[in-house]
Design a protein that fits this description.
heterodimer; A: Rossmann fold; 5-stranded parallel sheet; B: alpha/beta; Rossmann fold; 14 strands; about 15% strand; globular
Chain lengths: ~425, ~475
């Protein structure tokens, strides 16, 4: 039955995705909920909580406030805290109860902004979607509100011979705090790119506000699509999708980005009609991700495949690298939201335990968070890839940096 | 949890408060029961107090099913996972369409049925937890449990709740949970030689005054924390009398006693000599009446000896700790102001109590302190500004003991590794709570602990649930 899980975990929810995405930006994020969301987020979803003084709070909604629609209590509490703590912005995110009562996030955010003079954003999360939905919404909100037009700083081409790039969708929920974010930056810089901003680990709000100076966006998780869309629609910046895992894929990605961005700029210079947001993606359609039906050395899907369970973009990148380097077809079982057109025909959207189990029949191996192991058939090779958004802090110490070190996939060979 | 953040920590730090900016109120100026106005709430990393998953897991062989939105499921799933008990835990996720279509009853019934069908072994009992949205949508919970009991007559179902929206309306989720698990007990004939201790998460200390009294009476004592099987748990219903001492257990004890037609004694957790004598004398009276035992009350000489033992322990502790500041939080023991009063009366330098509210049972000590120790400071734990308390204080890395914390939250806020790591009273009661507290304080003063690592563990001592 859909919606039931006998034994596997639950992905971090949209409201936590908002918090994670905005954590390092100096804002105040308020979850409009009774209780519980805050401790869950700070215990299981936020590895930075002990070390970094970010202002993430809960409103402490009570039964009577919900029934009576007492928004003034929330607004007053935020005003009071903001006057004391001086956040750079205020963000409101919702929970199941506030969703049920029809709480108007945008309207309340407007009132808060009027009263405090601090930019305020409302994100209508419900606690019923995964973190991807919330993080994507939050990053889109930041892009919409804070990114400035490039002005003279951007020329529409390279600066100092380097192509400029933003990294979108970088949160500890997908990349933990083990240095994977730094490895992605290092890969880009060694490939001749200049990283303008990292959304959002290791960049300030001020750095994010300069994102329109970039020539291209790299979406490293589905959390980045919301911001990519805004940055394309407002500033015409194309985007690539993928995480540079493995030995061959990083080089292919870098080359592809360089070539396609030049082509993109050329087309615009020649006055070609603007592309849709979906068509402004420059990596998936370029064939750098293999099709999942057969490997480079001809091994077919029916002879056994690798199932990669997890977030869409990372899983797609891993699956492609496995096909290229291990010679085994690999398919993605995407358990979180992912826009249409990113995953391949062989991949599946599998939000529930009962969606996943039949897809594992015939698998040679499974790469997934350890909390998936109980539903993997006996005899199937299982490679642990702990994922903060699924198992929280449980396996944090053993989360690999797949950009720096792909050897965890050696067991496949 | 050892893996520390490697991104640019602190480099984008927002406005930071200093120690003197943190919110506090002199006890003389503090109002009862809420010294601070409610506002946005902060959640500290101190996680030692138990949650409803852990309390439910105390029932041997019992399976827990939570029916909630993903955001609410996340914390409880990972609680079970961290306990290593995912094989006794399942979920049904509520999605937006369920709110729109009004099919909550069907979702719960069919979801639970689906999970039962997939379990490798039929559990003897299932706690089905519903949530805030069920309350707001008027879900017919009676229908749900009736239907489940009809479908699965071999399984005991109990209604359980994860509805924090109701935490200010009637019983709290913790109190409800401590009531729910005892609903699983079947009616059994009372055994005059047996009593059951109800509602605590932490096993009663074997050398506590309660244990000693029950041993003296020669009674068989049952407590959920020591039950190894579901059948053994069911024997708790054979008690001639139920005893609770953890305050949140009282409503569950009352409900159980009323249902089974037994008596329920609410033993007070106290640091006051006279109150200890009074509450244990009351228990002795009840046990003598219910079980026919005699001679359970302590004699005057025995009481004098116990008091002398406490005085000696307090003096020894004061001798070692001297004037080192002592701070107390509410998670250590349900009566933080009672503890503060005891220590202040014995010349300890108690400077702060961390408590967001004053428990009703602690009011007398609170009122006395207002008069006698007006400068004692109360700090909140959930106030928004407390986000910056840990970094505003710097005791953890210093040599020696600069501040002694009693309780995890106090330790975190004071940023000290010299702390007493006990939650929820630690199974202590009677005079033994005083002597044990003194011993724990001496140890904390001398031996530093890994505060960062220890306070983040959820449900201190919850490994007792793994059988």
């Amino acid at each position: 039955m859909k919606q039931t899980a006998r034994i596997i975990s639950t992905y971090s929810a949209d409201v936590m995705g908002v918090c994670s995405a905005l954590f390092e930006l100096g804002g105040m994020v308020v979850m409009h909920d009774a209780s519980g969301c805050n401790s869950t987020y700070t215990t299981h979803d936020e590895p930075r909580w002990f070390d970094m003084d970010s202002m993430i709070y809960i409103s402490g909604l009570s039964e009577m406030e919900a029934i009576m629609g007492d928004d003034e209590k929330l607004i007053g509490d935020i005003e009071e805290a903001a006057a004391e703590l001086h956040p750079k912005f205020i963000a409101l995110a919702g929970s199941p109860v506030s969703a049920m009562t029809g709480f108007d996030y945008e309207a309340v955010a407007s009132v808060i902004e009027l009263r405090t003079g601090i930019p305020a954003l409302g994100f209508p999360t419900t606690g019923m979607n995964t973190y991807i939905h919330g993080a994507s919404m939050a990053l889109a909100g930041i892009a919409e509100r804070f990114v400035k037009a490039p002005g003279n700083a951007a020329s529409g081409g390279k600066r100092n011979g380097k192509m400029r790039i933003n990294i979108l969708g970088l949160t500890p929920l997908d990349f933990s705090t083990n240095g994977t974010d730094a490895s992605i930056v290092k890969w880009l810089e060694s490939g001749g790119f200049e990283v303008v901003s990292k959304w959002v680990m290791g960049s300030t709000l001020e750095e994010l506000s300069r994102a329109a100076e970039a020539d291209v966006n790299l979406v490293v998780s589905a959390s980045g699509f919301g911001a990519a869309k805004v940055l394309y629609e407002k500033f015409g910046i194309p985007y690539a999708v993928g995480v540079p895992v493995g030995n061959e894929l990083p080089g292919l990605m870098a080359d592809n980005i360089r070539i396609k961005v030049e082509e993109f700029a050329q087309a615009r210079a020649e006055g070609e009609a603007p592309l849709s947001f979906e068509d402004a993606e420059i990596s998936v359609e370029s064939g750098i991700f293999l099709n999942g039906r057969s490997s480079g050395d001809g091994r077919s899907y029916e002879e056994g495949f690798v199932a990669v369970i997890g977030e869409g973009v990372t899983s797609l990148s891993l699956a492609s690298s496995i096909e290229m380097e291990c010679g085994i077809p690999a398919k993605v079982l995407c358990a979180t939201e992912c826009p249409d057109g990113i995953l391949r025909e062989c991949d599946r959207m599998t939000p529930d335990e009962d969606d996943i189990i039949p897809e594992l029949k015939g698998a040679y191996a499974v790469i997934a968070d350890p909390m998936y192991r109980p539903i993997v058939p006996e005899g199937v090779k299982f490679i642990e890839l702990p994922h903060e958004a699924f198992s929280g802090r449980l396996y944090r110490d053993s989360i690999p940096d797949p950009v720096k070190d792909f050897t965890f996939c050696e067991a496949l060979i | 949890m050892k893996n520390e953040t490697k991104s640019n920590l602190k480099s984008v730090k927002p406005h930071k408060l200093t120690a003197t900016d943190l919110p506090s109120v002199r006890i003389a100026d503090a109002s009862f029961p809420a010294p601070f106005r409610s506002g946005l709430e902060y959640s500290s990393p101190a996680r030692g107090t138990w949650n409803i998953v852990q309390t439910g897991m105390l029932v041997p062989e019992c399976h827990e099913i939570y029916v909630c939105a993903a955001g609410c499921l996340r914390g409880v799933v990972l609680t079970a996972a961290e306990m290593g008990l995912m094989d006794r835990f399942s979920t049904v996720a509520i999605r937006e369409n369920n709110l729109l279509e009004g099919d909550m009853e069907t979702l719960v019934i069919e979801g639970v049925t689906d999970i039962i069908g997939k379990l490798p072994k039929r559990p003897p009992a299932i706690l089905v937890h519903t949530s805030c949205v069920h309350h707001f949508t008027g879900t017919d919970l009676d229908l749900i449990y009736r239907e489940l009991r009809e479908r699965f007559p071999d399984i005991d179902f109990a209604d359980a709740y994860m509805n924090p929206i109701m935490r200010k309306s009637g019983l709290t989720p913790d109190q409800l949970m401590r009531r729910s698990i005892y609903k699983l007990l079947h009616e059994r004939e009372a055994d005059g030689d047996t009593v059951s201790i109800i509602g605590g998460d932490i096993p009663t200390q074997p050398d506590s005054d309660l244990t000693r009294m029950l041993e003296r009476a020669g009674l068989t004592v049952r407590e959920v924390t020591s039950c190894k099987t579901y059948d053994e748990f069911q024997k708790m219903a054979e008690a001639k009398a139920f005893i609770s001492y953890y305050p949140d257990a009282a409503p569950g004890g009352d409900a159980l006693a009323e249902r089974l037609g037994r008596s329920h004694y609410k033993l007070k957790m106290s640091f006051d000599y006279d109150e200890i004598d009074e509450t244990f004398a009351g228990l002795a009276d009840l046990l003598e009446a219910e079980t026919g035992r005699t001679g359970l009350k302590l004699t005057v000489d025995e009481i004098s000896a116990k008091r002398a033992e406490c005085e000696a322990a307090l003096a020894e502790t004061k001798e070692i700790i001297g004037d080192t500041p002592v701070v107390i939080d509410y998670t250590y023991f349900p009566r933080p102001f009672g503890l503060a009063k005891l220590l202040l009366d014995h010349d300890f330098n108690v400077t702060k109590v961390y408590a967001d509210s004053v428990p009703g049972i602690d009011r007398e000590s609170f009122e006395t302190l207002k008069t006698e120790r007006p400068d004692l400071l109360i700090y909140p734990t959930v106030h928004a500004d407390m986000r910056f308390a840990n970094t505003a204080n710097t005791a953890a890395d210093e040599e020696g003991c600069k501040v002694l914390a009693i309780g995890q939250k106090a330790a975190y806020f004071e940023n000290t590794n010299n702390f007493v790591n006990v939650v929820e009273g630690g199974g202590m009661n009677g005079y033994e709570a005083i002597t044990r507290t003194c011993a724990l304080m001496r140890d904390a003063y001398i031996n530093k602990k890994d505060m960062r690592g220890l306070v983040q563990i959820k449900g201190l001592g919850c490994e007792v649930c793994v059988r």
